Backbone:
């Protein structure tokens, strides 16, 4: 792959991540990190925090759940061979889980008085048309689970 193609691919990826972050913010999420580097394990595209109200039948409303969301963004340009989300295979999931562990251990959440009730691994795909003038975004919340974290 030549250098100019690498630059175009990086620019496309950066634009997809920008669009994904704006979308998450429109859902009320707070972006904590973008492109957090985890050494040889790669990076976490977006780390976000969401607050979800428990839909409980209890007479007393519970406090909202505070959720940490690790979001992998896959950006592609048409025509596609397969689905963009298919690139988040088992090996990629393993790397994301390991990077999330590194992220959590590098942060002193107790000092910041933050506690997460749940940790989710989400996937967002952004697929641009062949001309790059429009795109389709697909959000897959809780796309996969870590058995332990």
Residues:
């Amino acid at each position: 792959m030549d250098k100019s193609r690498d630059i175009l691919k990086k620019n496309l990826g950066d634009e997809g991540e920008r669009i994904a972050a704006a979308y998450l913010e429109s859902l009320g999420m707070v972006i904590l990190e973008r492109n957090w580097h985890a050494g040889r394990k790669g990076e976490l595209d977006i780390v976000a925090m969401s607050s979800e109200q428990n839909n409980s039948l209890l007479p007393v409303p519970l406090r909202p759940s505070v959720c940490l969301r690790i979001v992998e963004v896959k950006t592609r340009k048409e025509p596609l061979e397969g689905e963009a989300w298919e690139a988040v295979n088992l090996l990629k999931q393993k790397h994301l889980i390991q990077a999330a562990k590194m992220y959590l251990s590098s942060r002193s959440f107790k000092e910041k008085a933050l506690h997460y009730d749940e940790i989710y691994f989400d996937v967002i795909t952004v697929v641009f048309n062949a001309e790059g003038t429009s795109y389709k975004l697909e959000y897959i919340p809780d796309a996969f689970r870590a058995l332990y974290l």
